Amino acid sequence: MGYGRWISGFGVVGLGVAFFVTAPAPLPDDALIGADGTALIGDPIAGEMVFHAAGCASCHSAEGTDALAGGKSFVSDFGTFYAPNISTDVDHGIGAWSDHDLASAMIAGVSPNGAHYYPAFPYTTYSKMTPQDAVDLIAHLRSLPADATPSRDHDVGFPFNIRRLLGGWKFLFASDDWVVADVATPELERGRYLVEALGHCAECHTPRNALGALNTGDWMRGAANPSGDGTIPSVHSDDLGWSAQDIAIYLDSGFTPDFDTVGGEMVDVVDNTSQLSDEDRAAIAAYLVALP
After folding, report:
1. In this predicted model, what pLDDT tens digit does every residue of 256-269 receive, in sequence order?
2. What residue stretches are annotated with the Cytochrome c domain (predicted)?
């Protein structure tokens, strides 16, 4: 009888720990407060750069339009995910969300109603975004037109449709640590920020484990295409063999050193990186060439 009570007690404790670990955790209330104690003010012009660096339009633009109405599908081993409407529409987009709601979604992966987002939304890398970049991006998003297209529900079966379980996934795999811990110059630091945080390049170019988490031991070494159609190439300097100048030119023009042109999903990526400054493209290139 005593043994049974011990087992029951451990079960209750285990459930309590699991309930705590899997609870959605939005950003703290003061996350968007500056060092001077006042709320950060977003700059929509600076936010446009963040918008391009983060590739927002690549996922959220509706087919055939610039409206951020969502709908693009992302096939995976866990189901098919659909990008939501992030236009300023009050009913179907983000028009009724506060800045804190939006920042919690992007950085913490938590919805305004307190639910976990699936990591098909790359908040696991946006988590490294600076608060100022977050409010700048939000200011830019608020300057864009509304679209009343409803977001489409994800096609995800059991048990992956239990969003609470994502809290355990975050506990195991989400991290704010830089993959490349040591960078020697401001240019490399900027490149790391653009690649590892805003650009979320590893979400496609790094392989994943059985639970869908990035295998950082093979950082940027290429991965299987989640759709099952071919592979996504390595952009690690050991495999790519391009110079920093080659990479910077490609990110601007879409031309490879062999005078081939960009294709597939990279068309959207280059459309975004071509909007960045020469210095930012050079920083991305320097980071990739310097990968250990």
Report:
1. 998 888 888 888 89
2. 42-145, 186-292
